[in-house]
C-alpha cells in the first residue's frame, strides 16, 4: 500500500507550504531519511525526508506549487531493504550491468539531461531562447536551477525570444518581470495582514552606545580567540529581554477574548536571506547572559543562511528584533509580526557630535525604533519600555549586567 508524503506543518501559525524542488523523480528508489523534496514556508526552508526505504510512485504537485499543510504531495511505496540480500553481490552487479547495457547510450544521456531541468527552467529557456547546455548547473548533481538561468541571462544580457514582435522586444528590454519566489509571496501576505489587523504606531529613541563601544574594543581580542563575534545586537537583545520582564505588556498578543500576556520571553531575530527574511527564535532569552546570546545569535544566523534550521528554531516567538542598521539604515518603521504586540528596529551605530553638559562631544550614537500595536498599549507604555532599554545600554559601565560579559564566562558558558 502506498505511503503518503505530506506537506508538514513547520510552525504553529503555518497554514501552507511551497514545493521548491523535487530531489527525486517518479520511479526513483530512496532510502529512509533521504531528502526527497525541498519546501518553503514563511518561517523556514527545509527538506522533507523519506519516512521509509522505497520507490517514488507518484509526484502529485509540481515545483513552485503552494499547498495547505497536511496535503499529500507524493506517494511512496515501501520496499524491503533486504530484497537483494539473498543474491550474491557479483551476480547482482552483473545483472545490473546487463540491464544498463540494454539502454542505448543516447537515450540514457537524454534522460540525464531531462532530469537536470525542471519544468520552470525549461519554460524560461523556451521563453528567452536559451540553450540550457550553455548554463552551468549549481544544483545537486549539476542540476540547473532557476537562479542559474537568471544569472546566465544577466551575464549574457538576454532579453526575449526572437519570436517576439519588435514592439514586444522593446517592452522587455525596458522592463523586467521578476516572478514572485515563494518566500516573498508569503511574506507579502503576512505583512499586509499585519497592517490591516494591528494599529501600527512607531516611536524612536536615540541611544548613546559609547560605553558599549569601549567595552567591545577592550574585549574584542579575547572574544575573537573564543570565536565569538560580539556585535551590538547581543547587547540590545539582553537589554530587550530584561525590559520585557519589567514591561510585560510588550510581550503579549491581542485576542477577541482579551490581551494574552506571555510569561516567557522568546525573542525572534530577523535574518536577511537572498530571497527574503526569516525569523529564528532565541528561547528564554531572559535566562541567558550576554555571551550566550551572542553565540546563539551567531549560530542561528549561520544556520538560517545555510538552510539548516529546525522547525523548533522558528516557533514560539513573543517579541521580534530586526537589525536594519547592519545595512547602514539609521531608523525605520518595522511591521509587527502577528500575533506579537511589538517589534524593535535597531539602527546603525555612527559617531557624531552631540551636546553633553553644554559641551560638544563625539559619541557613538544609535536610533532604536519600536513599532507597537496601539490596540494593546498606549504610547506611554511603549516609551517606558524603550527608556528602560536606553538606560541599560547607556549605563553599561555601571550596569549589574556588565559582570555577565567577563572573559572567564566564555570558558564556562555552554554553546548555543
What can you see in these coordinates?
The protein is an alpha+beta fold. The chain folds into three domains: 1-83, Beta Barrel (OB fold (Dihydrolipoamide Acetyltransferase, E2P)), CATH 2.40.50; 103-179, E3-binding domain (Dihydrolipoamide Transferase, Irregular), CATH 4.10.320.10; 184-412, Chloramphenicol acetyltransferase-like domain (Chloramphenicol Acetyltransferase), CATH 3.30.559.10. The chain contains eleven helices and 19 strands. The chain has helices spanning 89-101, 105-116, 119-127, 146-156, 166-174, 182-197, 210-225, 233-246, 290-305, 379-394, 409-412; strands at 3-6, 16-22, 29-30, 35-40, 45-49, 54-59, 66-68, 72-78, 200-208, 252-254, 259-261, 267-269, 271-273, 276-278, 281-282, 319-322, 342-346, 350-356, 359-373. Strands 9, 12, 15, 16, 17, 18 and 19 form a seven-stranded mixed beta sheet that branches. Strands 1-8-6-3 form a four-stranded antiparallel beta sheet, with no helix packed on it. Its cofactor is (R)-lipoate.
Shape: globular
Count of helical stretches: 11
Order of helices and strands: EEEEEEEEHHHHHHEHHEEEEEEHEEEEHH
CATH class of the largest domain: Alpha Beta
Rg over C-alpha atoms, rounded to the nearest angstrom:
27 Å
What's the structural domain tally? Answer: 3
Distance between the termini: 43 Å
Helical content stands at 25-40%
Spans where pLDDT lies below 50 across 5 or more residues:
83-87, 158-171, 406-416
The beta-strand count equals 19
- CATH architecture identity of the largest domain: 2-Layer Sandwich
Strand residues, percent: 15-25%
Briefly note the CATH topology name of the largest domain.
Chloramphenicol Acetyltransferase
The residue-averaged pLDDT reads: 82
What is the oligomer described by this structure? single chain
Largest sheet: 7 strands, mixed
Class based on secondary structure composition and strand pairing: alpha+beta
CATH homologous superfamily caption of the largest domain: Chloramphenicol acetyltransferase-like domain
EC number: 2.3.1.-
Protein name: Dihydrolipoamide acetyltransferase component of pyruvate dehydrogenase complex
Cofactor: (R)-lipoate
Enzyme class: transferase
